[in-house]
Amino acid sequence: MTIQTPQAVTEAFFHRIATAEDVNEIAELVSENVDWLVAGNTQVVPWIGRKHGRKGVAEFYAQIRAQISSEHFEIKDILIKDKHVAAIGELASRVKKNEQAD
């Protein structure tokens, strides 16, 4: 049995976001009980909102991959305290439907 540290899981998570073709490979790194929330107006931005479990996380990444193209993604720092992790970074993307930058 391999014991994964929060740092290792977080690094693997961001690596998979960048490289995994199957969104389920990303989702398998989160808890089956995860309460995934990206705040905002779901009428305007349909891929945000609340998702539940690994299935919800996979759905989130499938939706954003279908609807936006990433122009810049950089993790500046990963902060860890016990089992809590926060990542600080930059993201720039373009909505595929209308080509507007976010």
Characterization of the model:
By secondary structure, the chain is of the alpha+beta class. The protein has three helices and four strands; from the N terminus they run H-H-E-E-H-E-E. It has a single domain, classed as Nuclear Transport Factor 2, Chain: A, CATH 3.10.450.50. It has helices spanning 6-19, 23-27, 53-67; strands spanning 35-38, 49-52, 68-81, 84-95. The strands form two sheets. A two-stranded antiparallel ribbon has the order 1-2. It starts with 5 loop residues before the first helix and ends in a 7-residue tail after the last strand.
Task: Write a concise keyword list for the protein shown above.
102 residues; alpha+beta; Nuclear Transport Factor 2, Chain: A; two-stranded antiparallel ribbon; NTF2-like_dom_sf
Number of DSSP helical runs: 3
Determine Rg (CA atoms, Å). 14 Å
Report the major sheet. Answer: 2 strands, antiparallel
CATH architecture: Roll
Mean pLDDT: 90
- CATH domain class name: Alpha Beta
How are helices and strands ordered from N to C? Answer: HHEEHEE
Work out the number of β strands: 4
Number of domain modules:
1
Instruction: Categorize the overall geometry.
Output: globular
Structural class call reads alpha+beta
GO molecular function: isomerase activity
Domain SnoaL-like: 11-92
Protein name: Ketosteroid isomerase-related protein
InterPro entries: NTF2-like_dom_sf, SnoaL-like
Helix/strand layout:
Blueprint lengths: L5 H14 L3 H5 L7 E4 L10 E4 H15 E14 L2 E12 L7
Antiparallel strand pairs: 1-2, 3-4
Protein name: Ketosteroid isomerase-related protein
Keywords: Isomerase
GO molecular function: isomerase activity
